[in-house]
Every structure is written in C-alpha cells, then in structure tokens.
C-alpha cells in the first residue's frame, strides 16, 4: 500500500469518525459553569429573577417547563420558540400547539436582567433551560445541574412544529419514533411525560376522547368512564376556553400523582394513555404509581439534562440574541 493510499485510507476513516461524533459533539460543547468567567453571576441573576415571578404565580412553572420542551423538539434547544413572526415568516410561536404557551414575559425579564449585568454574553436558549429547571425546583420538584453554552438559532418556522412536536393525540408508536429522532429513548418518554404532573390544558386538547373518538359520537374506550363523566361536566363539545387540571388535586405540585392517574386510566391526553400500550412505558408507570415515585425525581433530572442537549448550537454557530423575540 503506497503512502498516498495509506493517507487516503486514513483520511477516509477520520471522516467516518467525524460524522459519527458530530451528532454528539455539540452537546459536548456544553459545560457546567460555562459563564463562570464571562458572566460570573449569570445563574444567580436568572434564578432570582425567575423566583420573583414563580413565587407570586406558581402556575407559571408548568408553561415555562413546557416552553423548554417545545423549544428542544423543534430545531433543538436553540431558543427558536421565542422568536416572533415577521412580515415574511410565520414562526414556531404562532403554531397552534404553541399558542397556549405563556411565560414569555418571565424570559424577557430574565434576559434584560442578565443583559444589564453582562451585555451580549448569555443566550436565550441557556436562559430557557435554566428557567425551566428553576421553575420545577421552586415548586418542590427535582433540581438538576444544567450544562451551558447553547447559542441562539436564527430560524423559526411554523410548519416544523407540526412535524417535530409530539401531539396530545399521538399513539405510542408515534411517540417512541419522535423521541428516538431526538436521541431520547423509551424510558425518557415515560419520564418526561411525567411533566404533566403540573399544569392545565384547554378542553380542545382532549374533547375528541369525550364526544367523538372515532367520528361516530363515541368516547375513548381506553379512558375510565367515570372520569369521562367528570370531564364532560367541565368541557362541552366545542369549548375552546375552559382550562382543566392535568393532574387534578395536585396540578401545582411536582409529584408522582400523574402516574397514579395514568395507571387508573385517567390520563388526560391520548399520549398519556398511550404509555399503557408499551411494556416498557407501562412498567415505568406502574413502578412510580406503586412506589410513590421512588425514582421519578432522579429520573426526571437525568432525562431533562439529556433533553436539554438535543440539537444544540455551540461555538460559533448561531448568535447571542440581544432580545429573545428577535434575531440580531
């Protein structure tokens, strides 16, 4: 084998290696204490500012957690969900699944507090990841360390939301595929679904299960009939405004009650009930329901760290936005 051939063979093997690693390399660009030198107080400023809002309105924790999830599933955790639509582009923010997101004012307040201390240093994507963590922790949920160094994306496209974001009426096959596409496994699906232990939903997200499941004016047979009766009292067929607790009785507290409800066939969405249709997710539901969530907090923290690394931009990619709703 001549020198030239050896060199080509070596370069080819290196290229394969680069392609294999590049999927993970951006996430490797994140690290704990990333702003230690460039903005030493960043994390405490973010935490204190978020606390000002969450302490007054604990129900903001759920939408802020959901915002991070919605961000990461479309284009990765790059803050693209925060961008406003423009004259020439309709952004993710205006897609139907994101129209019920709220808490943007919290992100804006945090961003301006951080900008005041260290202009142009901390990304909106990192702020979103930290505020989601702090929100959960402030309502007695788990706390996890967030590796930082995400950069902000410059692109946000409405149609991508429908293709990438798991829908409340997704079945278990679709859910597993959508999570796998983001490098998240079946356990992550079961664990992150537990985020539904906090928050509310508009009737629109599940009324088809109450009134017209297969288009014949029927109810969803996988749902507890007694629960259907209760939900029908709250939600009339074309109700688009009423809010219903996802975890009745403890929707403001981060706990394992969600799994107890799902095990009793009282999951609000089809995507919740779907967890009983797969041996692995079903086993996880039953484990948490029967052991008072023995491993839920630890599992949730681990899956959130993993989700927070999906498709991140690092190094010279993207930008650090001055305002979270606008590209620079």
Question: What's the arrangement of secondary structure elements?
Answer:
Layout: H1 3-28, H2 42-56, H3 61-73, H4 104-117, H5 124-138, H6 158-164, H7 172-180, H8 186-193, E1 200-202, H9 207-211, H10 225-234, E2 243-245, H11 257-263, H12 270-273, H13 279-290, H14 296-307
Antiparallel strand pairs: 1-2
**How much beta, percentage-wise?**
under 5%
The domain count comes to: 2
Give the strand line-up of the largest sheet. 1-2
Structural class: mainly alpha
Report low-confidence residues grouped into runs of 5 or more: 15-23
Mean pLDDT: 93
Question: What is the class of the largest domain in the CATH system?
Answer: Mainly Alpha
Largest β sheet strand count, sense and barrel closure: 2 strands, antiparallel
* Form type: globular
Number of strands: 2
Termini separation (Å)? 53 Å
Please give the CATH architecture of the largest domain. Orthogonal Bundle
| Alpha carbon gyration radius | 21 Å
* Distinct helical segment count: 14
User: What series of H and E elements makes up the topology?
Assistant: HHHHHHHHEHHEHHHH
Report helical residue fraction. 40-55%
CATH superfamily of the largest domain: Peroxidase, domain 2
Annotated CATH topology of the largest domain: Peroxidase, domain 2
EC number: 1.11.1.7
GO molecular function, one term: lactoperoxidase activity
Family: Belongs to the peroxidase family. Classical plant (class III) peroxidase subfamily.
Organism: Gossypium armourianum
